[in-house]
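Repro:
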Amino acid sequence: MKNYNIFIISDDKKYSDIIEKKFLLSRKFDNISITNFQSALKILKNQNPDIIVIYISNDSQINFIKQLRDDTHFKNSFILMISENIDNDLLCKGFDTGIDDFLDINTDETLFSMHIIWDLKNKIQRELSDNKSDVLAITGIVDKNTEFYKKEYSHWIFEREYKKSLTNYKNNVFMMLIPDLQCRATLSSEDIALLIKKSLRLNDTGCFTQDGKIYLLLSQTDEKGAKNIFEKINNALPFDCSISASALNVSSVEKFVNAEKILNSLLEQALQEGNSYIFYNPKQKISISDKKLKNNIIIKKEYIQKIEKILMPAFFKMQTIYEPKLYNTEIKQIYKEKEYSFLIKNRENLCLITVECKNSNEINIKIEETFKQKNTCDNINMNLEDFTSEAIENIIQRSAEKFRKILYKKEI
């Protein structure tokens, strides 16, 4: 099978012939293949295209670009969109789905060839960058899927990049993101990073942090550009998931440690509102003096730490243990803003264990049971220091064992 590195995709032979004639091949080994949309994916799968030239005659064909971009086989291929009448709406749709470049069909041969040469060079740069990322992933410094720096290395790498950006007088933005409280059980930092990755440039930097945040250093970006990224991520999330973020111009804060403190404070405020984005104004004073607000922040921080380190692993462990033991029974975890519940139920019986953080040092565990149409409800109050994985597992185990005995018609 002959290898082709340049593909022209068009359902109109007249336009594919016009495009082919515009090529002044820059290298001896450049080979062109022409195909239609219906056959394109099957043919391209067996090739390693450098450039994919797509002639768009209607909006429905834009979806084909998204199919290509969703396939990792074409992650480094350069996509050049060509159309007869390119308007702003078509361009926006094209770039949203993943094109790298665009030209009008009436572009002269010289300019056309220059774009092809630029696109080939950019494709090589993309591959080199990808190879560097692979090396960093192999050494364990970056996450392979997201290409973000891992939390073990992120702080000193990000501080170094922040200092470098201070010497660059172009607009640079430091941004923090984190999932909102109510969706942290279902939305991870890695999920968000995969969405962010689609919006980042090659010279942007992304890092995971020890406390579950994401740090971004956005090059040649301003307040509006950072907000666009925030909104794009939010729009791509499931309906019941959201994030909050804070950001600042790097030029407005000279030291990274100060910028980090400012954004952490603003992020805490954004989390109070939920699904919020706050951009730092150097003229404003950053202080959280309201006592009630401080207490709420402390509660949420401690509660989140317990959820991540104790409650969630315990829930998953007990669900894994009891799902094979309880037939025709539903076991699930329910996460709300201030309540985390473990549910076991079938048609006749129910057990619901709800964990709620009451204040900065108290956990309330509510145990509701319905066995043989008899309802009981118990409450256990526990200090945060006593709230351990073993404690919650024992509570779940007691109720689950009651449920199991009832299920198999044994006396409690």
